[in-house]
Amino acid sequence: MSTRILIVEDEEALTLLLRYNLEAEGFIVDSAARGDEADLRLQEQVPDLVLLDWMLPALSGIELCRRIRARRETERLPVIMLTARGEEGDRIRGLGTGADDYIVKPFSVPELLARVRALLRRAKPAHVANLLVAGDIELDRVSHRIRREGREIHLGPTEFKLLEFLMQSPGRVFSREQLLDGVWGHDVYIDERTVDVHVGRLRKALNRPRQSDPIRTVRGSGYSFDEMFEADAE
User: Fold this and answer.
1) How far is CA 171 from the centre of its chain?
2) CA separation for the pair 8, 22 (Å, rounded)
3) Each residue of 172-183: pLDDT tens digit?
């Protein structure tokens, strides 16, 4: 699952616990310990969901949530607020600021994961669906199987993740840097040309003679999964 979650939490131990459990579920996890740091990150890259602590250094979670809702790029971004404030008035204030859900510390990690999945199902169903289908291609996240016109296609783990990432946002053009970040991870430092190598392998596995290429090369920009399968392969 190539779904990105941003943890905004100044308790290092809790951040590590959340990161461990979320990554075990297949999520890509970033973190920030300060509200102002998280605000800058959100302006650079929008994740799929934010876990947001109420009490943060420099910029509170409440104020950051207000800013998230005020920007067009993030106004629909799912936000779960984490806080030690359990009074009804605090919950009302948190939800009134724009949080989609509210969890009081200490909390059950399995419950948190269930709420994350439930919120993603409502906000971004393609990110949690077990089966992605586009044109004549089917990608099963559970069995890690791919079929095209009934033919089973065998991919390496990186090519599988690359195809999954592209199929989640058909028609959207991703730069090589964005693909490196989304498929390989934010903290992995490899050459952008690596993307071209794996796209080539993916195309070779997917396409037979006279079959249209679903991977579109956008010169000077990057790659996209073409909804109409009308690509100009390099």
Assistant:
1) 17
2) 14
3) 888 888 888 778
